Amino acid sequence: MLKTGEMVLYGAAGACRVKEICTKKFGDGQEREYYVLTPLHDGRTTLYVPVDNQALHAKMRKLLSAGELEELLLSVPREEEIWISDEKVRQETYRNTIKKADRRELIGMTKTLYNRRKQMMAAGRKLHVADERLYREAEKLLCDEFVVVLGLEASQVMPFILGRLEERKEM
Hints:
Distance between the termini: 41 Å
Largest sheet: 5 strands, antiparallel
Number of strands: 5
C-alpha cells in the first residue's frame, strides 16, 4: 500500500504525489478507498485511483532510485536505433510503447525519434506531426522521473539521457 506524500508514476499522468488515501462515494454509490493523486506538473488536477482496482493500480509504479536510473541507461541496447519506415506500424508500435510505459522501451523510442528529428532538421524538414506528438508524450513520461529523482530541469533530461547513451558507445 502506498503512503501519503509518496511519489509514483501513474500512466500518462507521469509523476504524481499521493496527496491522501480516503474513502469516497462516486457514481455507483458505494464507498471505496481511493489514492488521491496530484500530478507533479499540474497541481489543479486530482486523480482518484481505487485502491482495490488492480488494473488501475498496475499503472502506478514507484520511482526508481538514482542508481537504478543509471543501471537502466546501461541496460539500453548499444545498437543503433531502428526506424520503422511503415508509418502505421511505427505509430501503433510507439503508441503501445507509451501505453506500456516501459522505461527501457521509452528511452529507445525517444532516442530514435530525437535522432530522426535531428536528421530531418538538417535536411530542412520536420518530423511527422504524429511522430512529434508521440516523442513529446514519451519524453514527458521519462522527464518526470528524472526530474524528481535526479533534480534535473525538464530541459536537461533528454540531453542527459542521450549523453549517457553516447558515453556507452565510446566505451
